[in-house]
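> example.struct
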């Protein structure tokens, strides 16, 4: 035998597993109790031109190895190739193809003492959290519980007076998983000191987090005539979420030269942007 085997170091194997999760932008909660701090909006994250801590996407799942934003429900067009395809299938086959809403948000992982959790490299752990519509409702309900009135909700993303969420997951599969989400009982807290001392890496503008495919690319995927990884997907677009769909897809080109109105920035959004710029400048000097 020409191969020369070497004894496996299982500690290295487990460290490698931890490293994979550490550098993955998406946070997937294991069963158990976790603590997260939702961060303010980054870039163009907005709904109805007002800053939003999450970016909503209506997504089709289960088509090859890719996730496809619904062009109809995202307001890009009056028609969606996936919806049109699903409408012609028997109900049981069509159900997994219908779009569902997801919300993407930037978070900082925390511990039970309401302090930032650190990775194996000692660094703060910034992640992207995707929640479905039901869990987004639980987050908003948690905010309502700590606010004086439903019309004057507290900003739980505030860097100085925000709230850390306690996220409990039970179950391991889609069928048996349940979530309990609420603000921690110790109250409001500040994470500004940690962010100023250790810096904030460039956080993603989640309004463009999920790339859009062109209609012909989607049709090719549905008919098994294309490899979604053969060519790079179209650049993600900043879609005005929940806008009414256009009557005719051909109208898209008419608006390309118009200057898009920039959304109003929140103070938390500006402060987070300043902290990212400060960290970037410091890294450049080092």
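> example.seq
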């Amino acid at each position: 035998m020409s191969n020369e085997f070497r004894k496996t170091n299982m500690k290295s194997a487990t460290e490698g597993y931890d490293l994979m999760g550490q550098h993955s932008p998406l946070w997937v909660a294991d069963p158990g109790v976790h603590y997260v701090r939702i961060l303010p909006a980054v870039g163009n994250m907005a709904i109805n031109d007002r800053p939003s801590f999450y970016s909503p996407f209506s997504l089709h799942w289960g088509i090859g190895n890719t996730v496809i934003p619904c062009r109809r429900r995202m307001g890009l067009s009056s028609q969606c190739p996936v919806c049109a395809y699903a409408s012609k299938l028997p109900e049981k086959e069509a159900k997994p193809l219908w779009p569902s809403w997801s919300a993407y948000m930037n978070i900082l992982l925390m511990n039970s003492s309401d302090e930032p959790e650190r990775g194996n490299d000692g660094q703060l752990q910034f992640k992207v959290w995707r929640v479905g519509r039901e869990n987004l409702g639980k987050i908003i309900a948690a905010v309502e519980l700590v606010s004086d009135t439903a019309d004057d909700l507290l900003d739980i993303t505030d860097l100085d007076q925000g709230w850390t969420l306690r996220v409990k997951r039970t179950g391991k599969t889609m069928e048996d998983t349940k979530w309990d989400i609420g603000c921690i009982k110790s109250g409001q807290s500040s994470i500004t000191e940690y962010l100023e001392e250790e810096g904030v890496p460039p956080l993603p503008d989640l309004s463009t987090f999920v790339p859009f495919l062109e209609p012909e690319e989607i049709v090719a995927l549905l008919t098994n005539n294309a490899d979604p990884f053969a060519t790079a997907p179209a650049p993600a677009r900043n879609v005005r979420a929940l806008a009414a769909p256009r009557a005719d897809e051909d109208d898209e080109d008419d608006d390309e030269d118009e200057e898009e109105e920039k959304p109003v920035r929140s103070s938390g959004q500006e402060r987070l942007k300043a902290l990212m710029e400060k960290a970037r400048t410091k890294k450049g000097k080092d």
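> remarks
Confidence is low (pLDDT under 50) at residues 19-23, 226-235, 237-263.
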